[in-house]
Amino acid sequence: MGITRLLTVLLAVLLTGAWPTIGHALSLDEIMEKGSIRIGVYRDFPPFSYRDDAGKLVGIDVDIGREIADRMGLKVNYMELTADENVDDDLRNGVWKGHYLGGGVADVMLHMPVDRELNIRNDLVVLFGAYYRDEFLVARDPVRTGGVETLPVFAYEKIAVELDSLPDLYLSGAFGGRLLPGMVRFTTPMEAVDALVRGEVAGVMAPVSQLEAGLKDHRERFEIATVPTPGLMKVSWDVGAAVKHTYRALGYAVGDVIDAMEADGTMKRIFADHGVTWRPPER
Which end of the chain is flanked by fewer CB atoms within 10 Å, N or C? Predict the structure, then answer.
């Protein structure tokens, strides 16, 4: 920043008590000048971001981040974020403040729910660039469920869920608690899907992205479908990106890249590479 521009900014701060909107463009300028972008992804979150057997960071979001950087002419560095108690905490730790243990924040955080109420509640970030619509579905063994396509069949067969997830909370109280005796809880959705493949349970309720990725070569043995979920208000959601509220220009640039990736088929290809069907977000 030149001395004249710096003095102008400082004068504005003295007069208004706040940094002016000129700061929105500077973050993008600085990233382009240093030639690299720091993209945040979740730690241990297959199929979106996780370490493979060789210790390499892989996944859908990792590939999306690399493509964003390539199209902007930048190198990419990844920040792996451990999920906290809720998304609000993740936005604080990954986007606008940083974790109290250190590590800094990302320039752009991927796999954030693009939700108006969430953004209103977290006004120090901007949620944008939805690139996928995830949904809670049920994977089931059609032999053991006898072709029944509703949840009450799991009053007689076991169904697996991720511990303390929305499916766990919902199924625990659904249908007067009739499903509770047959519920089996696992630490991750992938562990739940593995139990289905091994025949330990007859179904799994989880995000469709994790059902598809977890079943892999066993897809032909199982059905993945929607089921009636009376009383469950939120069954699907869009995921996209987040930047700090003063980095809007960066958000616009990344959003344009995401739109282009959807338009030219790159987004669909990346998901397919990881065994997941790309589902376009609602606009």
Answer: C
Helices (H) and strands (E) in the chain, counts: 11, 11
According to the model, what pLDDT value does residue 248 have? 94
**What's the pTM?**
0.88
In whole angstroms, what is the distance from residue 61 CA to residue 155 CA?
Answer: 37
Residue 236 DSSP label: E
Could you give the CA distance from residue 183 to residue 45 in angstroms, rounded to a whole number? 23
Collapse the DSSP code of 223 into the 3-class scheme (helix H, G, I; strand E, B; otherwise coil) and give the result: strand
Cα–Cα distance measured from residue 140 to residue 221, given in angstroms and rounded to the nearest whole number: 9
Cβ-count burial 225-254 (b if 16+ within 10 Å, e if not): eebebeeeeeeebbbbbbbbbbbbbbbbbb
Per residue in 196-221, pLDDT tens? 999 999 999 999 999 999 999 899 99
My answer on whether omega of the bond before 47 falls inside 30° of 0, hence cis, is yes
Q: What does each C-alpha distance from 32 to 44, 61, 110 come to in angstroms?
A: 29, 21, 19
Residues whose CB falls within 8 Å of the CB of residue 236, separated by 6 or more in sequence, listed in order: 133, 134, 135, 136
Compute the distance between CA of residue 92 and CA of residue 240 in angstroms, rounded to an integer: 16
Three-state secondary structure of 101-168: CCCCCCCEEEEEECCHHHHHHCCCEEEEEEEEEEEEEEEECHHHHCCCCCHHHHHCCCEEEECCCHHH
The tokens 């899907």 sit on which residue?
A: 193
Beta bridge partners of 75: 36
- What's the per-residue H, E or C state across 29-88? HHHHHHCEEEEEEECCECCCEEECCCCCEECHHHHHHHHHHHHCCCEEEEEEECCCCCHH
Structure tokens at 167: 């499916």
